[in-house]
Write a structure and sequence with these properties.
By secondary structure, the chain is mainly β. It is built from two helices and nine strands, in the order H-E-H-E-E-E-E-E-E-E-E. Helix content is about 10%, strand content about 55%. Strand 7 and strand 8 form a beta hairpin.
């Protein structure tokens, strides 16, 4: 139910902006940005994003990251793992114009995860396999480096609903319980390199 409501809200917002009577062909500036988040790479998570200009002050950013690494050891057991797939769509309002300066965003992340033995995530000596979604707001700034290159920094906070099956250890297959959590806090941190088309 929560997923349908969040994705429905995002779809309505995108439909509203897409039907606006705006001719981007007559406006100057980039219309698409290809990006990658350096902070996300620091967690060994390959990631890529596309940002589309919808109007002079509006854009739609869609980023995805996949961490396929299981932490499997030579003896066949599993150790620390942050295996996950994350999709992060965000509708942005730019104060100056798209891809330049300050912006505010509304994001609706979705993730599927299989996390084990990570103390700071609360999974020490256990494994959680599940999914999550939510909504949040963000603030960011984009610095123009040249005709086709930008650097962007973003921070976001919001709410996430997380549901997972809990297992007693990293490589055990006996489920203990289903855990449902409501998280409020940081939902986004990015320092991204962007190539503009």
């Amino acid at each position: 139910m929560i997923k349908r409501l969040l994705f429905g809200s995002l779809f309505c917002a995108i439909s509203f902006l897409a039907t606006a009577q705006i001719d981007l062909q007559k406006e100057k500036g980039a219309v698409v940005g290809l990006k990658t988040n350096a902070l996300y790479w620091a967690t060994a998570t390959p990631n890529l994003g596309l940002e589309f200009r919808l109007a002079r002050h509006w854009s739609l950013d869609v980023e995805a990251g996949l961490n396929p690494f299981t932490g499997k050891k030579d003896d066949g057991s599993f150790g620390k793992s942050i295996k996950h797939f994350r999709v992060h769509p965000e509708l942005r309002y730019w104060f100056c114009e798209t891809f330049h300066g300050h912006f505010l965003g509304l994001h609706v992340p979705y993730l599927i995860y299989n996390v084990s033995d990570i103390k700071w995530l609360g999974t020490e000596n256990e494994r959680h396999q599940g999914w999550g979604t939510g909504a949040g707001i963000s603030y960011g700034y984009s610095w123009v480096l040249g005709k086709h290159w930008n650097i962007e920094a973003t921070l976001g906070v919001g709410y996430l609903y997380l549901e997972s099956d809990k297992y007693p250890c990293a490589n055990c297959g006996t489920k203990i319980e289903t855990v449902k959590k409501h998280y409020v806090g940081p939902t986004q941190a990015a320092v991204s390199a962007i190539y503009l088309f």
